[in-house]
Amino acid sequence: MEWIKAKYDRLLLGICGVIALLVGGLLVMNVMGFKKQFPQRDEPKPKTDFGTTDALKSLEAAKARLAEVVAIKPPVKDGKPIGLFVSAPVLKTAENELVAVLDPAAKQVRAPIDNLWLYENDLDITRSDIAEIDNDGDGFSNTEEFMADPKSNPRDKKSTPPPFAKLAYKECVKDELSLKFNTYISDTELSFRRTKPADKAFNTPFDLKVGDSFPAEKGSMEMRFKAVKVDATNPDKPVATVDDLLTDTPDDYKIELKQELELPTRKAKIVSSLGTPEEKIVISGEEFSFTVNPDYKYKILSVTDEEVALEAGPEKTPVKLKIN
Q: Distance between CA 27 and CA 105 in Å, rounded?
C-alpha cells in the first residue's frame, strides 16, 4: 500500500493509457468495418472509343447545343410586343384614374398629344403643361411638333414643323373703293366715278369708250379697271360690265346706271409667332417673308374676310389660314 501511495500518479497515468489504447482500437475496428455497411459499386470500365466516329459525333452534337441561340419571343398585344423585363408604365390622373400609357386605346392624358408619343420621345407625361413646353427650343411647342405632318422630333432643334405652322390671319384690312356707273350716252360716251373714300373721289373722262381702261386713283397712270361692254337692252337701266385688271383671272362686275358697287381692296394682316412676333399687311399677289427666316418666302393668292390662301416656301405648299 505504501508503494501505491508513493507511485499513485504513475499508476493513474498507466491506467489512462490503457483506456486510451482500448478506445483507439475500437475506433480503428469501426472504421475498417464502415465500408461493409454500403453496397460495392462496379469498377468503371476503361474508355475504349477515344477518337471513334461515334465519339466525334457526340462531341459535335454537344458543341452545337452549347452554341445554339435561344430566342425569347415576348407576348404581343394589339400587334406590339410586350417587354418581359420592363414593366408597362401606369399613370394615376388627377381624377384618380389609372391609365396604361402604352395602351393605344387608353385615355389621352395630355390631349391632343398621344400618350405613346410622349413616352417614346421621353417627355414627362406627369407634367400638366407638357403640351405647351418647347423642349428643344426651336420655337414650336410639343403640341405643334405632334400635330405637324409629318410629326417632328421634340428633342431635336433641327427637326421642326414648317414655318407656316406659326402663321395666323388676324384681320382683313380694307381700303375703301366704291365705283359708280355715272353716265351713259353711247358706247363711245360713258363715265364712271369713284365715290369712296371721299378724299379720293373723281370722275373718269366723259369720252370714255367701251374697251377703254381707267385708274382707281385720280391722276394715276396705273390702269385698274376696263369697261368691257354695256347692255342697253333696257335704255332706262343700262348695265355696264367692268373687269378688274389687278386679278389674274377676269372678274366681271356688273353695275347698273346710277348705282354703286363696293370694291374694297382687301389686305391680310398676318402674324408670325416664330421667334419674336412679327406682323405683315399684304395684298393678293404680294410676296413677303419674316425676319426670323428671310429666305422662306410666302405669296398671297387671295384674301377674303374669312380666309387667306397663300403659297409657302420653295415647294410652294398651298396654305389656307382662317381668320382668328
A: 79
Distance CA 211, CA 243 (A): 10
Please name the amino acid found at residue 78. Answer: D
Q: What is the pLDDT of residue 19?
A: 79
pLDDT above 80: residue 317:
yes
Q: Which residue has the cell 363696293?
A: 262
| Residue-wise burial string across 5-39, b where 16 or more C-beta atoms lie within 10 A, e elsewhere | eeeeeeeeeeeeeeeeeeeeeeeeeeeeeeeeeee
- Residue ranges per domain, the chain? 86-161, 168-173+266-322, 178-262
Question: Contact 116/79 with Cβ under 8 angstroms?
Answer: no
What is the end-to-end Cα distance of the chain in Å, rounded? 134
- Condensed to tens digits (0 to 9), the pLDDT of residues 243-252 reads 998 776 667 8
Is pLDDT larger for residue 43 or for residue 126?
A: 126
In this prediction the pTM is 0.59
* Look-up of cell digits 420655337: 139
Residues 83-94 as b/e (b if ≥16 CB within 10 A, e otherwise) read eeeeeeeebeee
d(CA 277, CA 279): 7
Q: Say how far apart CA 284 and CA 289 lie, in whole Å.
A: 14
Degrees (nearest 5) of the Cα angle 59, 64, 67? 130
